[in-house]
Design brief:
Strand content: 15-25%
CATH class: Alpha Beta
Largest sheet: 7 strands, mixed
Distance between the termini: 38 Å
Number of strands: 13
CATH architecture: 4-Layer Sandwich
Radius of gyration: 18 Å
Strand order of the largest sheet: 1-2-3-4-5-6-7
Structural class: alpha/beta
Order of helices and strands: HEEEEHEHEHEEEEEHEEHH
Helix content: 25-40%
Number of helices: 7
Number of domains: 1
CATH superfamily: Ribonuclease Z/Hydroxyacylglutathione hydrolase-like
Amino acid sequence: MSVDSDVAVERGGGPITEWFWHREVSQGLYLIRERFFDAGKRANIWLLQGSQRDLVVDGGLGLRDLSGYLYASRLIGAKPVMAVATHVHFDHSGGLHQFERVAVHRLEAGALIRGDDYEAVTWLSDADISRAPWPGWKANTYWVKAVQPARVLDEGDVINLGNRQLTVLHMPGHSRGSICLHDQENRILFSGDVVYNGALIDWLPYSNVSDYVQTCKRLMSLVDNDLVEEVLPGHFDSFDGERLYTLASRYVASAGVCHKMLSFATRGIASVVLWFKNSHRHLVR
């Protein structure tokens, strides 16, 4: 289901409902995407409506008001809402400041509090955005806004929505504080960037190949124990447990010495470029 409305015009960028798109995946579960962010890079945003409270999984770029869109579309309303970051990379954390209650894993809470563009891997170009969010917008003025989390998450914590409970699984590798959210009763896994149907990235600041191998072995174990039937990833389309096992096992098989050396070298280059890029951005602020 998509939305077409003229409500909530913001900063001269047109109706806010034009910026986002959403579809009901199943009862109470919605996929939200930013229409004008390069399709190959844009992150999935998930909304899970509970009987007592609602949960937004990741916040997108934050160029337009995600919270306002959800209210305007009547996807959220009277119930309390919390936004949880699967990790703090900019395409997932940029919109978190638009919510009153935010949760993040303990290892990345400091980066979120600081608005740390280096750890957020803020790497956005004008070409990534097909329609500017407001007249005169330029990518070099973009940064992740600092957020004080209302809840700091650890392995095994449970997010209770009333009729649904999500367990926090700390799954480092892509980043040090990456998490999955596991709805064990319904065998659903919100995987963030821990795993999606594409090449897994392990060469960013705070990525770690050895951690990623252990994470992928844990994902394989979830499938072996019939605990995951559907994966709702941070990018691209959803997939089933069998595909999850294939993606995880392929990574484990590929992560030998040569892979680790290449990842280490690429991470060094990426870290220098990110540091330089974001040092310049702070001067622009």
